[in-house]
Amino acid sequence: MKILIVDDSQFFQGFMKKLFIKYLPEAELITANNGQDAYVLYEQERPDFIITDLLMPEMNGQEFLQMVKESNPKVKVIIISADIQKATREEVEKMGVLAFFNKPLNNEKAEVLLALLKEGSYAS
């Protein structure tokens, strides 16, 4: 399973890497700091899952999500963001994301995320 983690926070990227190394050791992890870099990596790597923030410089998560969905409508995207505006959440959910988690990611949310990834990897 290949996972692209997109977040401008190095701390959050590190947190996600540690989580996946511990609970999904078979996962191949790729990281990007913004949507622009992430889209290039997406096109090169074609990950099984994308986990992205929405609030980032250069190209935000919504713009990145829109580009990725135009390229591959079936791509599996999970949003983890501090942007909890109802309109924003509804907009990205209409684009077909698997899930939307609010930051910070606590143990309960992390368990749901891991279950989604494990479940979704068998569904492909």
Secondary structural class: alpha/beta
The tally of beta strands, per DSSP, is: 5
CATH-derived architecture: 3-Layer(aba) Sandwich
Order of helices and strands: EHEHEHEHEH
Query: Tell me about the biggest sheet?
Result: 5 strands, parallel
CATH class: Alpha Beta
Tally of discrete structural domains: 1
Label the overall shape: globular
Give the uncertain stretches in residue-range form: none
Radius of gyration: 13 Å
Element layout with pairings:
Elements: E1 2-6, H1 10-23, E2 28-32, H2 35-45, E3 49-52, H3 61-71, E4 76-81, H4 86-94, E5 99-102, H5 107-123
Parallel strand pairs: 1-2, 1-3, 3-4, 4-5
Give a quick rundown of the structure:
With 124 residues, this protein is α/β, with parallel strands linked by helices. It has helices at 10-23, 35-45, 61-71, 86-94, 107-123, and strands at 2-6, 28-32, 49-52, 76-81, 99-102. It starts with a strand and ends with a helix.
Structure description:
Strands 2-1-3-4-5 form a five-stranded parallel beta sheet, with helices on both faces. It contains five helices and five strands, in the order E-H-E-H-E-H-E-H-E-H. It has 124 residues and is of the alpha/beta class. It has helices at residues 10-23, 35-45, 61-71, 86-94, 107-123; strands at residues 2-6, 28-32, 49-52, 76-81, 99-102. Helix 2 (35-45) packs parallel to helix 3 (61-71). 50% of the residues lie in helices and 19% in strands. Strand 3 (49-52), helix 3 (61-71) and strand 4 (76-81) form a beta-alpha-beta unit. The N and C termini lie close together (10 Å). It has one domain (2-123): 3-Layer(aba) Sandwich (Rossmann fold).
